[in-house]
Amino acid sequence: MHRRHFPRALALLALVATAATAGAPGATAESPTPATTRLHDTIDTILADTRLAGAQASVVVVDTSTGQTLYDRNGDRRLVPASNTKLLTSTAALELLGPGHRFATDVQTTGKRRAGLLSGNLYLRGGGDPTMLAADYDALAAQVAAEGVRVVTGNLVADDTRYDHTRLGPDWTWDDEPYYYAAQVSALTVAPDTDYDAGTVIVHAAPADRAGAPPVVSTTPPTGYVHIDNRAKTVTEGETSISIEREHGGNTVVVTGQIAVGDEPASDWVTVWEPTGYAADVFRAALHRHGVRVLGRTVLGQPTPETAQPVARHDSMSLGELMTPFLKLSNNGHAEVLTKEIGRVLSGSGTWTAGLTAISEYVADTGMDTGRLRQRDGSGLSRRNLVPAAEFVDLLSAVRAEPWFATWYAALPIAGQPERFVGGTLRSRMAGTAAAGNVHAKTGSLTGVSGLSGYVTSADGRLLAFSILLNNYLTASVKSLEDQIAVALAGYREGAATTARVAPPAVPETPRTPEGVECSWVKPITC
């Protein structure tokens, strides 16, 4: 690749612009304009909030048309970015894989077929698709049956060898492991619904018809891969307090607590231990439903022979379409799959190391100084990720020149837009302000960590790139402070004819949910 130092070039343009306006009152580098001074004072006041006492803040705002820095507070300070890390992963994926990239899941065999009998193994080969639903495995099974296969004499082999077998990020905390946002990463997996949290199962606990009986527990999708240990009870009345937890190291899910007769079922997303086996279980059940009997056992992790012949195939949505659930819902699993997929496509190694190396090379090509940051995973779940706000703003400024920018910009959460796959993690924030429908930005949250980085169009038409990183605070949340800064930027006005108006990028139509597929609207969005 040729390095394209867009942000550095824009900085030079800013110097030229500053010199050109030096004769105007208040427009010299030594003397900021009144509007810029007011903006500084406003943001400084917001950051002086007592909730940030003893905390760290890194905030940078840049006019993308000129490269002029409008605000910089500790912009070179490396802070934990949480899910703002996905800005690096998503842009690199679009550039290195391409918006049209798709994941293939296929069924192959080396066996001979005669009169409905397949003599040999059936291979289910995973291509990394994080959007595979039980319905997709059912469609694959239907294709196998349509090929005339009725009995498979060999094994069902689940091939997940496109990626390595490191399932969890090395820096992830152990107590996150049962929860949907820290699912194990495999090239062969299942998502329970169109949030596409691959490697998870939804466990439902419905009240029994009478008090004293255990709740009725079911899963989405139905699977025997997860064992339910139901210790909960149904009560006549009282507050529902169902807890659903998977035990470490296996697939026993313990259900405890109580639920009242007549209450709505309690549901929760739970990760599975070894998602390859989960996918194989769902597919094997689908084969059975379609009249295909596998006589052998299920074998995990063996590669498909090169001489195997195709039987069935499923292709995922395009990467450009995947950006919507990925970024709107801040899907950690998508980020990690894309990291390994980048490694596999570019170097033949489906590992975090290979993927992160390629991501680093790409973001350096945009002008980010990779010597000043550290990326340890694709999603931001690692607390060893460290990125300065100024480097995020450099990336945000540079990618506006990419041919896929409009798709990516539209996939970012949009402030104050209540539709889940439009507003995403910002859907309930900044509503009724100048930032609503205006701010396109990536959120980020860990305990004591919050971030918001993206774009806002100012009151005088400037497209501003900004990054707000807040670390080491002790209060429950500081997101209202981020919102105040974003609203201030939306209301910023330098003055008439100081810069050309920049129209926000056109927003492509949001992809529709496939017909017949239900969406989940229950799970709270993390960020």
Automatic annotation (TrEMBL):
Q: Is Protease set as a keyword in this record?
A: yes
In the UniProt record, does the keyword Protease occur?
yes
- What keywords are annotated for this sequence in UniProt? Carboxypeptidase, Hydrolase, Protease, Signal
Q: Name one GO biological process term.
A: peptidoglycan metabolic process
Question: What are the boundaries of the signal sequence?
Answer: 1-22
Top-rank lineage group of the source organism:
Bacteria
The UniProt entry, under Pfam families, shows: Peptidase_S13 (PF02113)
Q: By its UniProt entry, which InterPro entries does this protein fall under?
A: Beta-lactam/transpept-like, Peptidase_S13, TAT_signal
The protein's GO terms of the molecular function aspect are: serine-type carboxypeptidase activity
User: Which PANTHER family does this one have?
Assistant: D-ALANYL-D-ALANINE CARBOXYPEPTIDASE (PTHR30023), PENICILLIN-SENSITIVE CARBOXYPEPTIDASE A (PTHR30023:SF0)
Known NCBIfam families for this protein? PBP4 (TIGR00666)
The similarity annotation says:
Belongs to the peptidase S13 family.
Record's protein name: D-alanyl-D-alanine carboxypeptidase/D-alanyl-D-alanine-endopeptidase
According to its UniProt entry, this protein's organism is Micromonospora arborensis
- Gene designation: dacB
